[in-house]
Structures are given as C-alpha cells and as structure tokens.
C-alpha cells in the first residue's frame, strides 16, 4: 500500500526509552519500563484506577471476564459490532455471548435496548454474568446509563475501550475508566502502540492484583513453582512497555491529528448520501478511524465501489466491523435489535486515518472518492 489505513506513528522518544531498557538489561517480561508505563496510563486516566499491562487487549478481556466470574454456562451480553478479539474471550471461558444492536445517534450500544432486556431477564432470574459494551471507532459508550443499569441489576460492567484511549465522555471523564473494568489495546494500528499489547484498567484493586497473579502463570508464593489454579503468560514485555512509555508522551497530539483528519474528510466529502459517524454532545472521540456510510441510492455507488477503487491505487480502506451475530461462527446466537449495525456494515467504510498521513495524501483520497461520487452509476 502507498497509503495505509492506520499504521504505527513513532515520535522518536520511543527509541530512547527502549535504549534505556537495554542499557539496564531489563529485557525480560517485567521491569521498570512496564511499571512506568502502567503509572503513565494511570496518571492520564486518573489516580482512582489501577492498570495492568498485558500482552493484548483480548488477554485483558479474558482476565476481566474470568475475575468477574464468567465460566461454563454463563451468558455475556455484548455489542455485536466489534472486532473478534472483543468476543473470543467469552468462548475461551466456555460462556455464550448474546449480541446487542447500536444506537443510531452514537453508533455505540443501545442502552434502552439493554435496559428493556435486563428487566425481562431479572423477572425470569436469568441475568447475564457480565455486560461488555464497545467504544466504537474511538467513541466512548454512554457510561452513565450503563453504570446505572449494572448497579441496579448487580451485573459486572466491562467496557471494551480498545479503540478509545484518548477519548472522553461527559464532563471530560476519560474513556477507559468506566464500569468495573475497561480494556485497552496497543495493537499496531491503534492511536498509540507498543507493537502489540493491552491493558486492564479497573477501579478495584483486588481485580488488578488478581489480574497480575493470573497473568504471570498464577504462581503461588513459594521458593519453587507452586500452582493452585490455572494461569496465563499474559504480562506485557518490558521492551514493548518502553515503546508505550514514549508513545504516551504524544497521545494527545495523535488524537488531535486524527480529529483534524476526520474534519478534513467531512469538509471535503459533502456529497448527498455520505454520512459520517456522529459524535454525541459532550463526548470527545479520538476519531481513531474516520468512519462513514455511503447510501448507494443517493450516491449511485456502493461502499465496495469506493473501497475497490482506492485499492486499485494502493490506498487501504476497510468496511466497518461485520456484526458478530452475522458471522458463521455465531450463527443462531441470540441478537436484540433492529439491524442498525447490519445497515452500517453494508454501507460503512473506514478511510485512511493514520496520524502520519500527509494533507497531500488525504487530498488525493478526497479527490478520488469525489470523482467516483460525481461520476455516479
């Protein structure tokens, strides 16, 4: 590709942090850079949370679900439009997902729909073991009603904030601080990266302590290797954490740039039938990826027409997440909604949004898409 969807963007500080780790010979899984990275994220999000650096966002979700008590026979209520890594940990634990649609005003989980189904489930004594809403494309879910519902029905709330570090909710509350726990991802295409990796963020110190224990093979205190439960090799590498430590210094800059990119697309693509992902009043999205929909009736072209045209010019774009309830793996799984997420998938496209993309590259994308739209069918 000449222009990628979202590639890593280093500042130069990361190399210095990695060099410090090498100089001190802390190249093993744990070390001072990992401690400092966890502290840096905690300081950014607020000192009331605890942070545990892990090998991936999926590992963080796996641990959070296990600590919440999810196991064989459990049901987890979860956003259908999300990445597979935000669902698979439910299966790792032998539990079953139940999928929920999106609110068209925010493109995040429909809280009214959740409230309706929770009331029915409570009456039938079949409440889920956990609720996992997704911060989609850098936008926080509606935390206040979600946290109120979780408290009302005493169901753990685990927010998948893999795509939203740097975003904020009402009154400036940081995305990644919601619920009993939140999940962060530092995959290579995210706002900031550690090359791979993730983090469990929780307001419960006991959850953080248990996550650290389980993530280091669940080693009981002893001079030898003693184990009383199954654990995992899930801790984040100290070298990767050093990269993350440098990336945290430019997090807000990266968010600002992605929001600028989103605004330039919105100003440049004003054709009828083109709609951009909404941002609820009071929210501050990272605009991790610029997501929009193309109505083929109004534009005369489809999402795929645009994607394939860009691909011919070595420009990477991608459809929105395919809702998990429509995936072959989850055929027959219960789903609640009217298909808002299905329609978004059919018409939705993510345009290149990397913070290292130049204005000239973006102008080329806008010009090529505009030409196709104006050419029509």
Overall geometry: globular
Q: What's the number of helices?
A: 13
Count all strands and give the number.
Answer: 14
Proportion of strand residues: 5-15%
Low-confidence stretches: none
Query: What is the typical, i.e. mean, pLDDT?
Result: 97
Textual characterization of the structure:
This protein has 377 residues and is an alpha/beta fold. Helices cover 38% and strands 14% of the residues. It has helices spanning 13-23, 32-45, 57-67, 88-92, 111-123, 143-153, 205-215, 238-248, 251-268, 296-299, 303-312, 340-347, 359-375, and strands spanning 50-54, 75-79, 96-100, 102-103, 108-109, 130-132, 158-160, 181-185, 198-202, 274-276, 290-294, 318-319, 335-336, 348-351. It has a four-stranded mixed β-sheet with strand order 1-9-8-7, with helices on both faces. Strands 6-2-3-13 form a four-stranded parallel β-sheet. Strands 10-11-14-12 form a four-stranded antiparallel β-sheet. Helix 1 packs antiparallel against helix 8 and helix 2 (32-45) packs parallel to helix 8 (238-248). The two termini are 27 Å apart. The model has no long low-confidence stretch (mean pLDDT 97).
